[in-house]
Amino acid sequence: MISAWLWSVALATGVLLIIRLWLILPRNSAATKRSARRHSDHCSLAVFLGSGGHTSEALLLLSGLDFSRYSPRTYIVSCGDNLSERKAIALESLKPVESPTQNPNYSVVTIPRARYVHQSLLTTPLTAAQSFLGAISLITFKSLFSASPGPEVLILNGPGTCFVLCAAVYLNRLLGLPSPQMIYVESFARVGSLSLSGRLLRPLVDRFVVQWPQLLEDGKRGECRGWLV
Amino acid sequence: MSESLDSLAPGSAPSASQVQSSFPSSTPISTPPRIHVFVTVGSTRFDALVHRVLDNDVRAALRARGYSTLVVQCGNSDFDARSFTQEGDIWRRTEDDMTIQVWRFKPSLQEEYERADLIISHAGSGTILDVLRLGKPLIVVPNETLLDNHQEELANALEGLGHLRASTISDLPQAIRTLESTKLMPFPPFNGSRFRELLDEEMGFTAGPGDRS
């Protein structure tokens, strides 16, 4: 009797969760567009630097932005990825700031990797869980407990770890917490087939951008504005 | 408006200034004096390419095109170093009309790209972007042993647009002999306004000039 009761509660919770999840998917939620901002407004931004070519492309995307507008900036790097951190700092030192007295307004934070190169599939759930906790502390806890609100936009371009960041954003949305708009930009290297992170994130992110138009020939969601890097 | 903001947009790499200034907008790449060839495998291991560029066929093809110095950045690749003399981190060999240098890594390859008259490379997208933005002739050899071989797709797509020459390990001598660098199409410079406009639009920043308040 009690177990039947527990089962129906679990089932009802599960169904509600699925409905909630379905409702917050980008294609179903009406209010994904932000309200109009004034030219001088600020917008906080976070970007995941996925090492190697991912980092280079992400930083190239950022290099075209108005840094006095997109401020403060948070660079999320995988633990131990010192090269990406150095490249982010290098970009920050190159960009002009609005006034000479103003310091660049950015921070570099780290997150455990979801999966290491050549890591066995058996241990991947463990590292992915660690990584998810890291993403939650960055995205969810920050919006709950921190005085400074979390980022308003999160730029992702792979690889694996960006999926756990997306999952943390969805946790915020499930709980009705503020959450960043997610923009996924597929790599310039992807001409005829999407990357694994691209395929995973395509239905989940708010904007899905590719750099070669043939990737959209399947008619699913996404946009192409030519080469962005 | 986008023009003025473009000038405020340096790239992330140290190459940014050269990217903006050295790229001829619509003129074909001029014929280089064909002296120096640089081979790079980036941070990867690509034994077959390193082995190939050091073999007789490729060296003969390079000589036939007038190249007299060959520098190979071999990364983590294995190669037969027996005929080389090692000085520190560099393996050297001098032949009658060609000097060869092999080394593994340098913090930046930008200087090497700038000095080279021809670059032969793995088909990594970062290398391709860096080299083409300098307006240098490029032959890429996709690494066929990679599992998820999207490098080949990129190489073929860019060859189809005329920006570079895609080759295989076995066809490399032929690619060197028949490369006509003047017929390569210039690669468009970095355009930071595309992503900026996309993001501004997404975040509700209107493009109107009158709303600066």
From TrEMBL, chain A:
Gene name, per UniProt, is ALG14
Q: Please report the organism this UniProt entry assigns to the protein.
A: Obba rivulosa
- Protein's job: Involved in protein N-glycosylation. Essential for the second step of the dolichol-linked oligosaccharide pathway. Anchors the catalytic subunit ALG13 to the ER.
The entry's keywords? Endoplasmic reticulum, Membrane, Transferase, Transmembrane, Transmembrane helix
List the protein's name.
UDP-N-acetylglucosamine transferase subunit ALG14
Q: Where in the cell is it found?
A: Endoplasmic reticulum membrane; Nucleus membrane
Q: Which GO terms describe its cellular component?
A: nuclear membrane; UDP-N-acetylglucosamine transferase complex
Q: Supply the PANTHER family for this chain.
A: GLYCOSYL TRANSFERASE-RELATED, UDP-N-ACETYLGLUCOSAMINE TRANSFERASE SUBUNIT ALG14 HOMOLOG
Q: Which family does it belong to?
A: Belongs to the ALG14 family.
Single annotated GO MF: N-acetylglucosaminyldiphosphodolichol N-acetylglucosaminyltransferase activity
Q: Which InterPro entries match?
A: Oligosacch_biosynth_Alg14
How is this protein situated with respect to the membrane? Single-pass membrane protein
Residue ranges spanning the membrane: these are: 6-25, 121-141, 153-172
From the UniProt record, give one GO term of the biological process aspect.
Answer: dolichol-linked oligosaccharide biosynthetic process
- Subunit architecture: Heterodimer with ALG13 to form a functional enzyme.
TrEMBL record, chain B:
Where does it localize?
Endoplasmic reticulum
Please describe what this protein does. Answer: Involved in protein N-glycosylation. Essential for the second step of the dolichol-linked oligosaccharide pathway.
Q: Which organism is it from?
A: Obba rivulosa
Record's protein name: UDP-N-acetylglucosamine transferase subunit ALG13
Q: Where is this region: Disordered?
A: 1-28
Q: Where does the record place Low complexity bias? A: 9-28
Which reaction is catalysed here?
Answer: an N-acetyl-alpha-D-glucosaminyl-diphospho-di-trans,poly-cis-dolichol + UDP-N-acetyl-alpha-D-glucosamine = an N,N'-diacetylchitobiosyl-diphospho-di-trans,poly-cis-dolichol + UDP + H(+)
Q: Which GO terms describe its molecular function?
A: N-acetylglucosaminyldiphosphodolichol N-acetylglucosaminyltransferase activity
Q: Which family does it belong to?
A: Belongs to the glycosyltransferase 28 family.
Q: Name one Pfam family in it.
A: Glyco_tran_28_C
Coarse class of the primary localization is endoplasmic reticulum
InterPro entries cross-referenced by the UniProt entry: Alg13-like, Glyco_trans_28_C
